[in-house]
Design goal:
The complex is a heterodimer. Chain A is mostly helical. Chain A is 58% helix and 0% strand. Chain A is built from 16 helices and no strands. Chain A has helices at residues 13-16, 36-58, 60-83, 94-105, 112-124, 140-151, 153-156, 169-172, 176-183, 189-194, 206-218, 225-244, 252-257, 261-268, 279-299, 306-323. Chain A is globular and about 70 Å long. The model of chain A is unreliable at 1-19 (pLDDT under 50). By secondary structure, chain B is an alpha/beta fold. Chain B has 3 domains: 1-37 and 113-377, 3-Layer(aba) Sandwich (Rossmann fold); 38-112, OB fold (Dihydrolipoamide Acetyltransferase, E2P) (Beta Barrel); 387-456, no CATH class. Chain B has helices at 116-123, 138-147, 160-163, 188-195, 197-211, 225-234, 254-262, 282-293, 324-330, 371-374, 387-391, 398-406, 410-415, 426-430, 437-456, and strands spanning 32-34, 40-44, 54-55, 62-63, 68-71, 80-81, 86-88, 92-95, 101-109, 174-179, 215-221, 240-245, 277-281, 300-306, 314-319, 338-343, 350-351, 365-370. In chain B, helix 6 (225-234) links the parallel strand 11 (215-221) and strand 12 (240-245). In chain B, helix 12 (398-406) packs across helix 15 (437-456). The radius of gyration of chain B is 22 Å and the shape is globular. The N and C termini of chain B lie far apart (50 Å). Classes of the chains: A mainly alpha, B alpha/beta. Bound molecules: iron/sulfur cluster (2 copies).
Amino acid sequence: MPEKEQKTKIENPEISMIPHIQVASSPHFLNPSLTTKKMMMDVLIALVPVIGMAIYFFRLYAVKQILICLASCLLAEAIFMKMRKKSFSLFDCSAAITGLILGLSLPGPAPWYVGVIGSFVAMGIGKIIFGGIGMNLFNPAMVGRAFVMISFAGVMAASGYVDSTSMVDAVSMATPLNAFKQSGISTAIFDLFMGFTNGSPGEVSAIACILGGLYLCLRRTVSWEIPVSLLGTVIIIGSFFDFLSPQEGWTLFHHLFGGALLFGAFFIATDPVTSPLTPLGKIVFGVGTGALIMLLRIFSGYPEGVMFAVLLMNGVTPLINRWVPHRTLGAQHYRS
Amino acid sequence: MGLIFKGFKGKGTFPRGIHPQEQKHFSADSAIEVLPAPENVLLPLLQNIGAPCESIVKPKQNVCYGEVVAESKALISASIHAPISGRVMKESVTTLPNARHVPAIPIKAEGKQLEGTDLWDDIFGGEWPKKFNGEFTPKDINKMIDDAGIVGLGGAAFPTYVKITFNRKKPVDTLLINGCECEPYLTPDYRVMLEAPEPVITGAVLAGIATGAKDIIICIEKNKPAAIDLIRKKAEGTNIKVAVLKTKYPQGSERHLIMAVLKKIVPLGSLPADVGTVVSNVGTIAAVARAVLKKKPLTHRVVTVTGGGIKNPKNLLIPIGVSYGELIEYCGGLTSNAARVLSGGPMMGFAFTDFNMPITKGTGGITLLTHEDMEKAKETNCIRCGKCVDVCPMHLIPAKLAQAAKYKNVELAEKYDILACMDSGCCGYICPAKIPLVQLIRMGKAMVQAKRKNRME
Ligand code: SF4
Ligand code: SF4
């Protein structure tokens, strides 16, 4: 039947000639306070205390490292995006976050080219070849860090953190995990908590990481499941070893507040792109990362396991997404 | 929180879901006005889920207010009645907001019409007893609901007589009367509860008799304290209970209401009746009372015309079949920054541009959004944050469903239960990357359905 003109035409021209009424699919109502950019901005805000403490303890070492990585990541993103003829996504802040996290996790005294190369690898291999934001499998900052760690083993090893001639206190001591591994010297918990120790500029201050991390979790910018399950696993394994060998100087609290654990749990493992989708998947991811960190710390030659643990778990994230059971409401069975 | 939710098995809420801005202030406090009788109405022959009706009137024939104009022999259907007295015109075709083309019967008003307070009294006025002593058997009530052509007025438009019935094989123990109205902006159910609580109570009692339900519970969200108090007061002397639920979207969905109040989960592919429950909306249940006590069919309903895009937001009692444009005009027309016109609310409503379309039985309101409401951040790639998973009331993985739809992967979509999606819109609302998830998932559903149909043939 052909569509007929209806008789109920509206006479009022004010109504019948509205020029810009649009149609689109529902919902017609979007959450205005949640955008990719705002989430990234939140991460930047959460990094403020961490950066502040880093600069306070490491002075120019931190400033230099952070600025180098930040600038190189932005530059790398701009160049790579241009090569792929895509519009430059500087303003979604994700490249800035990668730069900051990389800068905060490299040793302060490392030479400038380490930061530059790390940044280009992070953006190029870590992100752009996968197709840009949202497509990458591994955390870009950790890819960059792993690359320079393997290429420049000397400057990235525990000794790379120490510049004994430096005027800056923090840099002239050995890193706590290494000091303990090598010479059995245990660091005071309070120093670890506040950050009066050597290490990567971003990781030394536990309190700064906790502050920033709480902000992210409370704002729901990151999923609380990951840091909670990760730290929970570390606590369980840590207390188990405490119980096995109580006289050892390296206690659960050293595990918690020392090294990159808190920085990793709140800022690195929580990267949404490289962690699973479902709440249960996130818990599996957190538990896996926590267990791997403790495994590497306790049994391997590396004093620090956060980076490798996160990269490994990034690698199995697609499998977690596929295999962790998920049940539709009202479904009889879990689908896995 | 739903911490104090005594007397019921459920928690007063359900897992996941969202808290959009309520936006009820536009129309919540305006009393229902009776729309002056229109000169024309257009009655689409499909106003319910199920089979369309066939016209039983001829052009130029005169019909009276309340006369049947179209009916169907199919099991799941609802007959259609004339909302005004007048002359039937030549059958035409209209497009409903959900983009379906259906034949429709135009009626031109002639002679004296019931208007103003007379119409109000005819629909909501009079005596509404709260007790019955066998005046009506379940069969009578069911028959009267069928004859009155009542469908769910909450939006689904499922024929009510199919639900409110006595079924020996699947006995009903609980009847839930849905007054949640979780959709932002809309207020017709709220106004009905405030201005016509008696027929709601009577209808609930009658539906209780018809279904044989032991428990009758009227469910209202916490953000409507006035309605809660009034319904509680009016329900005194009956066995009806009032449940106060957490304000959350989509609390008014049947499955989620049943979960929140009764702690029962309706299996996928089943109906509430399979867990011994019937859910009916407050407006529907008032129509049931009218159908049984006054023997009057469903010809009118309450709608809300609301939003920043309309000059004078109102709640209106209108004849079904009046055009959207007429209601908009009656409410003062659009404001200069109106940007989108919706049939229904912003979460599940349909956008349209043809103001000549008629209001159908299932239309709860018209929402007019402004350009400011529509401001949208740029779409980015999915950042796999999982927020869509955290809010999906059906516990689906919207990101994955959307991906499957985008790459036309029917197997993947089916494996992840795409057909369980209820179009709630929660995922699209929350997604920080502003991906049109619901649109993609709808495409995916159409793909899966097309494939299933192929398989059957
Ligand atoms: S909410 Fe949007 S960005 Fe986040 S996982 Fe879902 S689809 Fe992707
Ligand atoms: S629209 Fe479908 S997939 Fe999206 S949240 Fe609602 S039920 Fe889940």
